[in-house]
Amino acid sequence: MKYLLLIQMNPAVFEALSEDEKNAVFAAHDAFSAELKETGELLGFVALADPSASTTVRVRDGAVDATDGPYVEAKEFLAGYYAVDCETPERAVELAAKIPDAAYNAIEIRPVMAEAGLEM
Q1: What is the distance, to the nearest Å, from the Cα of residue 17 to the centroid of all Cα atoms in its chain?
Q2: pLDDT, tens only, 31-83
Q3: What is the pTM of this model?
Q4: Burial of 85 (0-12, 13-18, 19+ CB in 10 A)
Q5: In sequence order, which residues have a C-beta less than 8 Å from that of residue 36 and are 6 or more positions away?
Q6: Which of 67, 77, 64, 72 is nearest to 13 (CA)?
Q7: Which of 90, 89, 108, 110 is nearest to 99 (CA)?
Q8: Which of 32, 66, 68, 115 is deepest in the core (most CB within 10 A)?
């Protein structure tokens, strides 16, 4: 079963960390991705730019509106994800708990629908 492990980030929480703590988070990501490569469960991972670099696109009545910035009201934002292929939902929870950001923010586990079907 394929899952996305979505890293939800609250910038205020991350900014409150010391430089040593931030560096420890980055090093833990390196170790985590190495572990997933070794087990063969890693499909890919991406760290996303700050939401201020986003463009939001909406189409209404055939008109495209592209606006600089995220403009989706939330304190947290999607900071990145790991795409994994693991045997059980419990294993996905185990892997999500190993993502270093889980100690500070939330990790959302979402099955990949192409694998799970529309009944999700």
Answers
A1: 19
A2: 999 999 999 999 999 998 887 888 878 889 999 888 887 665 667 888 999 99
A3: 0.82
A4: middle
A5: 42, 82, 84, 95
A6: 77
A7: 108
A8: 32
